[in-house]
Write a structure and sequence with these properties.
Number of strands: 7
Helix content: under 10%
Shape: globular
Order of helices and strands: EEEEEEE
Strand content: over 45%
Largest sheet: 4 strands, parallel
């Protein structure tokens, strides 16, 4: 019932998938990624919104590292955006 911001712009990520499990109940979660970091999302939304902005890379094929977002969102919002 609040908001969370996760900023991955200055994080050294290991090779392979980096898994982020979200649970958002009547709140907002914003994940900021570097422009070249691929992201996949498979979160379940109930009366909620989960989306990846169109300027975020979603092609994980051939990527050394990528982010996988999964979890549950109810009456809230999860958004992945690329850094400016």
């Amino acid at each position: 019932m609040g908001s969370t911001k996760l900023d991955l712009r200055d994080v050294d990520l290991p090779p392979g998938p980096v898994r982020i499990e979200v649970f958002t109940l009547m709140g907002d979660t914003k994940i900021i990624v570097p422009r070249d970091l691929p992201v996949r999302m498979s979160a379940f939304s109930l009366m909620a919104d989960s989306r990846i902005d169109r300027n975020v890379n979603q092609q994980t094929r051939g990527a050394e590292c990528w982010v996988e977002v999964s979890g549950f969102i109810m009456m809230g919002d999860v958004k992945v955006v690329a850094a400016d």
